[in-house]
Amino acid sequence: MQKTTHEMLESSEFKRLVRNKWAISSVLTLCLFVLYYGFILLIAYNKPLMGQKIGAATTLGIPLGVGVIILAWILTMIYVAWANRSHDAEVSKLRDKVKH
Questions:
Q1: pTM of this structure
Q2: Which of 12, 15, 48, 82 has the most crowded CB, counting CB atoms within 10 A?
Q3: Alpha-carbon gap, residue 42 to 9, rounded angstroms
């Protein structure tokens, strides 16, 4: 059954889609926020730990900073994988139900 754009925007299917996207985006954003600001707070409040030598010229802060960047990429990959696997398919289904 074809629906008008207004009917689709008011449908429970569309609202569920928006709710799911909001939930996954919020969780991943919170994770990224904790990751970045946790690193910044660690630098601010525990300089001796971050300055601790782990090699001839490397401090602990360097691999932790690289870890923050890598984990940010991983969080992005999680979102992209979820969107490609689930979200985009649902969007296509709903788009097909709308009258043009």
A1: 0.81
A2: 82
A3: 44
pLDDT-based confidence at residue 60 (cuts at 50, 70, 90): very high
Task: Give how far the C-alpha of residue 2 lies from the chain's centroid of Cα atoms, to the nearest Å.
Answer: 33
Closest C-alpha to 87, from 19, 12, 27, 30:
19
Q: Provide the H-helix boundaries in the chain.
A: 5-10, 12-45, 47-50, 61-82, 88-96
Token pair of 91, please? 């969007």
CA 56 vs CA 47, 52, 59, 62, 97: distances in Å: 18, 11, 9, 13, 63
What pLDDT score was predicted for residue 1? Answer: 62
CB 80 within 8 A of CB 87: no
